[in-house]
Amino acid sequence: MKNILIIGASSAIAQATARIWAKQQAAFFLVGRDRAKLERLAQDLLVRGASKAEIGVVDFLSIAEHQGAISRACESLGNLDIALLAHGSLTDQARGEQNNQYAVEELTLNFSTAVSFLTLVASRMSAQKQGAIAVIGSVAGDRGRSSNYFYGAAKAGLAAFTQGLRQRLSKENVHVLLIKPGFVDTPMTSEFKKGFLWASPDQVAKDIDNAITKKKNTLYTPWFWAWIMLIIQHIPEPIFKKLKL
């Protein structure tokens, strides 16, 4: 039985991944902003086979609340086997370009609050000398693009932080996985036109579960995004500036 902490548990990808783990009789502590959504998810996971599903309601932007949430999770579960960081928002690029306060709030939510939670979880897992931390980033962090550079900047920072955290914790028997989804059909992307490059949360969840089991360092999901982003990263800057990406 695994003891699993999910931060941002009501996200579509987190829910799909939790359903996989519920079938393995995992025990959960679910952290999020919306009590009603968390309670519905907890009940659903128990029906699917989870041995425990407790919740913690947190205002992610209130850093002072983070320590209490992690402490409650550890009181509920004991040692943490897996921590999945899945919270965040898809920044409105056009709004960010016109509203610096909104832009900073989005960067705080998508990067700074993630750093806060990861630092607290890392301390716990380092002390217990075991565990896996899975961080949902994005392919948007691989290269800044005019269509989403606020969101991409936060995810690029998160990628660098995760790399350093992985190197540090590898000496403590704690594995750190960075997940880089491409386009995923979730409520957060409901207004986007879908195409063949889009994946379902269930498909991404299966990839996450497999990557944690195999102790992968980085997961592009679906797999072909590794090749797409490799090409985008290597487009010469004079040409890149002329593209609409």
**Into which percent range does the helicity of residues fall?**
40-55%
Find the CATH topology. Rossmann fold
Average pLDDT metric: 96
CATH homologous superfamily placement: NAD(P)-binding Rossmann-like Domain
Low-confidence region ranges: none
Beta-strand content: 15-25%
Outline the biggest β-sheet. 7 strands, parallel
What is the element string, with H for helices and E for strands? Answer: EHEHEHEHHEHEHEHH
SS summary, helix count: 9
Going by CATH, the architecture would be 3-Layer(aba) Sandwich
| Widest beta sheet: strand line-up | 3-2-1-4-5-6-7
Instruction: Report the radius of gyration as a whole number of Å.
Output: 18 Å
- How widely separated are the two ends? 44 Å
Classify the secondary structure makeup into a structural class: alpha/beta
Question: What key attributes describe this structure?
Answer:
245 residues; alpha/beta; seven-stranded parallel beta sheet; 9 helices; 16% strand
